[in-house]
Every structure is written in structure tokens, then in C-alpha cells.
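A student in our group prepared the protein record below, which I am reviewing. I have pasted the whole thing underneath without changing anything:
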Amino acid sequence: MIARRTLDATAWTACAEVLGRGKGELMALFADQNRVHMIVRDPREQSLEHLCFECEGGRFPSVGRYHAPAIRLERAIRDLFGLEVDGLPDSRPWLDHHAWEVSAPLSGEQRAPVSCPDYAFLPVEGEGLHQISVGPVHAGIIEPGHFRFTANGETVVRLEQRLGYVHKGIEHLMQGTTLERASQLAGRVSGDSTVAYQFAYARAAEMALGISAPARALYLRALMAELERIANHLGDFGAICNDASFVLIQAHATMLREEVLQAADNCFGHRLMRDCIVPGGVASDLTKESIQTVRALLDNIVPRFRQLFAIYDSTASLLERMLTTGIVSNELVTRFAAGGHVGRASGRNFDARRDLAYAPYDKLSFEVPLLRAGDVDARLRIRISEIEASFSLIRQILDSLPSGKIKNDLPAAKESEGFAFIESFRGDVLVWLRIDGDGKVARCHPRDPSWFQWPLLEAAVEGNIVADFPLCNKSFNCSYSGHDL
């Protein structure tokens, strides 16, 4: 557990100014009743610091005033907790669309719902500009989000997002519930990352309880995480190519993904491996037959996957759509501490499995791919390299899988806190957990990597043609559900 420091207004603002000068990374910003928490990372020292501010009078100084990545987080805190943010550059609501029965639902008070005029998108002025409104309902089977384009002809001048349409009150549902029920809710924050979220939640709970999972369970967790990573990257590989009208790769990538999901179902009893990771260990074990199933899966899909990527890499018309499209600079991914393929495709060398090492990855060998082009092609190639790394990691896990039990009993819970970072396929997931004196969840905050990736999509699209937005969007594949909680 990292040390926690409570700051006064002067020190809190000084920390925000340091972040604004690029001297650290904002990893999380969230509230807990009348307290605000900030987790920052020093990339040079590879260290984390947990900072707190007591909100006297229900107010706190804005971090976003100096460090833009905090703005949406502070808007969300304001919506959920009713805390006022002094100096917040953008005071518009973020998650609250004024459709809730109460306002500030996590404040602990019954506040009447707020009514206000329509959402005020930022003004854009210039000759020959027009706006294109897309969503929140889309033509495909995807989650809702609104995208407001301002274009000059076919060139995008500005994109502004509005999210929050799939807010489901996960944090509120977790409050006052058992550790076991909260684990289930964590697995439903974002369906494509159910393993990563339950992995992070389990580690946070174990830190709070002062226990660890058995060695075999740690390896099984990593196996599930790598299967989840492969399945999602395969799906994105195909979907990106489909948005460039190259359906062949999508068809084959979809079949490969399906085989991974079927193997997961055969081994763990659920295609997405939901509820298979629990505090104290895992809920299901691998049999000898299951191990052979995973080995056979790799033997089957690895050569086919490599052939599929060779098609991508040798199709000039496809590469022409990807190269130099949707570029995000290293400066931006560094400033926003963007994780996963978004950050690594633009040169941010961070992976929680390595840089915030946790078992069993501290005993496994893997390379973290890194590119600097920052375009759609680079984000796709990071995925390809990560799939290859996952193939190797799974073989290492199976070769060194310890014997023994898969779950430790949980001790009687007492008032305590814990947190954990886990590397999901999308980037670093954080879960912070506080347990009350009755052993129930007093507060749990799951933070999706998409919070620091969605704003960068706006930057990636600028200067590209409208028709390339689907490519840019899918190359990011940010989570709506994980962001909207």
C-alpha cells in the first residue's frame, strides 16, 4: 500500500501545477464523500503517490485548471458527489444528463434533480464551416455516444464528444454491499474487460484484507487475462480492417476470436470468463484436458493469425488508409498518461504488468512493444505485437503452472483500504476499495483507461477527412460503459 498524504489547498494546487508542467502523470482523480483523492506517478522513479484533499464546505481547488486531463474527471465528481470545483475551466455537466431522479447521487443526500438548458457544445467560428451530428444512437451494434463534428468540406476542424449515456450507477450499487457482490459488479463495468476488472478488484480487496491468492490462482488469473487480451485484439484487428472495407481480414479475425472464446468457455465455464476471478483466488481450476485445450488452441490459431497479418502487411490499398491517419503526438499521450495501444503507439513506454509489476508477471518474460508513428497503423501493429507476446506468455504460464489450491479463505473484514492496477487489453485499469467496520464496501472506484484516451480521439481526428473517423475511432476502441460507470 502506498503512503497517503493529506494536502492543504496550497499544496494541492502546487501539485496540480507540477502536473501541468509535465513533471508527473495523473493516474486517477476521484471523490469519497467530502474528500478528493488523486493518484500520481513519477515516471522517472517508477513510483506512485496517493494524495488527498478534505473538501471543507464541499469545495476543492481544480486540478484541471492547470492539467487538462483532470477536467472531465472533475466534471464527473461534481455530477456524482455535488462537490464544487474552484477554478474548473469547463463547468458543464458530464455524466449527469439531467434525467436522474436525484442530483449528486453519491453525495449521501437526497438532492432534487437539476434541470438546465440543452447541452452547450463549444462554439466554432470560421468561414465555410458546417456541423455534422452523429449519435448517440448509431447504425451498428455499439454503445451510445454523441460526436459533434465541425468540418470544412470533408476535413474535420473539430470533434467534440458527449458521453455518459450508459451511466449505470456501478459505484452507487457497490456501496454497502458485500465484497463478493462488489466483485460481480466490478466484472460488469465493461464487458470486454471483465477479467481485468475482477483481477484488479480482487487484488485491491486482498491488499485491504492483508492476504494474497495462492500461487496457482495467480497464474490462472494471468492466463485468463492473456486470453481476454488476445480475443479483444483479434476483434479490433478485424474491425479496423472492416472500417477500411477490407472484409476478408475481419471474417478470419472473427473466426479466430471465436475459437479463443470457445476455449475460454471450455476451460473456465464462461466465454468471457466472467466471475472466474474472486477475492482470495479463482473460482474454477484447469484440468489436464483444459491445459491441452489451450495448447491446441495456440497450435491452431498462431500460424493462421500470422498469415492474416501478412495479408494486411502486403496490401498496399489497405495500408494507404492506415498510414498517417489519425496521428496522436507523443506530447499528448504523455500529458494524458494514455495507456495501452493508444499510448504505446505514440511512444509512451508504460505497461502496468512491467512498470507496476504484480504476480505472476514479475516472474514471466515478455516484451512491451513501442512505436512512435502514432497513427492507425501503429495502433494496429501494437495490437499485433501484444497478441504475439500473449501467445508466449500463455505458453510460459502453462509450462510453469504451480500445483495446489486455487483460493484462500477471506479473513473477517475490518476497516481498511486497498487498490490495484491491472493491465487490460485497453490499458491500465485501477480499482480503489475502502471497506467499512462491518466488512462491507464503503466505497469502490473503478477507473477505466478510456478516461485518458477519449479526449485524445478528438485530437486524432482533427485534420482528417470525415470518412476516416470510423478508422480512428476503432483504432482507439475506447469503452463507453467503462467510462460512464
About this structure: The chain has two domains: 1-120, 177-448. DSSP finds 16 helices and 14 strands in the chain. The mean pLDDT is 95.
